[in-house]
Design brief:
The protein has helices at residues 4-7, 9-31, 33-40, 47-72, 78-100, 106-125, 154-160. It is mostly helical and 161 residues long.
Length: 161
Amino acid sequence: MRSMRSTFRPLRATLLVHFAMTLSFAYIFLLDPASLSRMYGAVALDNMHLFLAMGFGSLMIALAIGSFLAFLHPLKNAAMILLLIIANFSLFLTDVVVLARAQMTLTTLFPEMVFYLAIAILLIRFFPEKESPKEEKPFVPDTKKEIPETKKDPVDVVTDA
């Protein structure tokens, strides 16, 4: 019989990868705007863009914390995993809209689009479920064995006296 802990290995691996990547994105958006500018090919150093980048970095930290909590207890935090699925799929759709508006090039957005979509698909695929209890067969007495007959019927013993 497989234990509950071993059934969540692929899910936990996915959540651990998500945690590491989301935390690294959060670091870039919060603390390293120069790398952010190089990564996206645009200089976003005015105050409004820095504020928006820091807000996105804060949300990424919240998602990273959620993926770590779900990593620790997948079945208990199934709602958190559902939130991660929705968040990653939403980020993927945001990138699709940015591409449709021709705001950024495909080569710039493609790696993060693949990441967001792959994580969402893997989380859906390995979504935690309770193990179904094994069906127990009802007790059926063995009718093939015959009960040995006594020499005297107990009722006759009581009535003979």
